[in-house]
Amino acid sequence: MENIRAYNPWGGSDIALGYRRDFYMTKITPYIGNSLVKVLTGQRRTGKSYILRQIAMELIHKGIAPENILFINAEFSAFNFLQTHEDLEKLIQEYRKELSPQGKFFLFIDEVQNITGWERSVNSLSQDFTTPCEIFISGSNSTMLSGELATHLSGRYVQFEILPFSYREWCDVHQKEQGFDSYEEYLHDGGLPELIHLNDDEVRRHYMSSLKDTILLRDIISRYSIRDPKLLEDLFVYTVNNATKLTTPNNIVKFYKGKGKKVNYETVASYLAYMTETYIIHKTERYNIQGKETIAGNCKYYINDLSFYNYLYRGFSFGAGYELENLVYLELRRAGYKVYVGTIQGAHTDEQSEVDFVAINGDKKIYVQASYETSDPKTLEREYSSLELIQDHYPKFVVTLDKFQRPNRNGIVHVLAPEFHKVLERI
């Protein structure tokens, strides 16, 4: 136990807690105290580890003895001996023998997917009424987690997706007032927590390059035995620089063939799926607003944080308007919405109009257009006209970085981008 003592609250070392993510703590705290396994998912380096530590410290502040908490980070070299679920169970037995926790103990496992067969141990521990155990786990691969959780823990877990800092969190960390100036900074910076400690752009570029390499190499190339790592990285670059644009694997295959590179549909589709599984990009399907159904074919991809673009690929033709659209997408996802790209048939034409986002959360539905600014009359008309085609009475918004508030138009609300998160809170 000595080699892991420093990583646990009973070990005598100060445990780094980082910036307190109250947004997520508020969501997770109501589930503490029951047998549901709490699962934190999301891209690497978005703060899952810190949130797990914050939960552990919250338990101690509420009276739980430090000895009743076992914290495991399966990424740290100190835990390299944890290769399988049998190793995990041996460690737990040793911990209980040495620390003698009284009553329920709390198990935290960070990056649980690194332990082969982890789901067997988690399932057994969560259901063993003779030894009460409450479990919190995190992971960076959606498919591995969802498949194993659905198979072994169906109905007995609750999942939380952890995204990079929101605009509000970013302002809080940087001690900046919310407004257009800070929003522009956030737009051209990014929300990954580690960036707040890196003030030099060159250092930030190195960090982002290292993070990108780690995700591609450890979470995709090694796990799926990728045969063409160069194509995988090229696809990531392509996706970053074509975020917010409708595309298909076939379109990408044609793009590469035009450049003389031989690729096939199956490989491209698989590599895109692997990237979405690691949360580094998000796939957004089209939604027929009139038919209320998803549409196969074209889709859009959004990047999990603009820092990949800002520090690795700036200079490509992305554009501030597309950056804003990406941020609006992330804000909707952060608010718990399932997000689609909307299409709607014109009233007097066979052409379809696009609505940037159809966002659905239970019985709530909203429509959102995102545009950098609407000072040009053609842009203004384009952003509002698509929403005006929608005949239902769900809320409709146009989010922009205009410096002035436009009046409502046919029930459509103009929202200044720095205020969008507040609008979502009120729905």
Main beta sheet: 7 strands, mixed
Please give the number of β-strands.
Answer: 12
Tell me the helix content: 40-55%
Q: What order do the helices and strands follow?
A: HHEHEHEHEHEHHHHHHEEHHEEEHEEH
Rg of Cα set: 23 Å
What overall geometry do the principal axes of the alpha carbons give? globular
List the total number of helices: 16
Q: How far is the first residue's CA from the last residue's CA?
A: 49 Å
Written overview of the protein:
By secondary structure, the chain is α/β, with parallel strands linked by helices. The protein folds into two domains: 2-161, Rossmann fold (3-Layer(aba) Sandwich); 167-426, no CATH class. The protein contains 16 helices and twelve strands. It has helices at 2-5, 22-28, 48-61, 85-99, 118-127, 142-152, 167-174, 180-187, 201-224, 229-241, 249-258, 265-277, 307-313, 320-334, 377-388, 420-426, and strands at residues 37-41, 69-73, 105-110, 133-139, 157-161, 281-288, 293-303, 338-345, 352-361, 364-371, 396-400, 412-416. The strands form two sheets. A seven-stranded mixed sheet has the order 7-6-8-9-10-11-12, with helices on both faces. Strand 2 (69-73), helix 4 and strand 3 (105-110) form a beta-alpha-beta unit. Helix 4 (85-99) packs across helix 5 and helix 9 (201-224) packs across helix 13 (307-313). The longest helix has 24 residues, at 201-224. It is globular, with a radius of gyration of 23 Å.
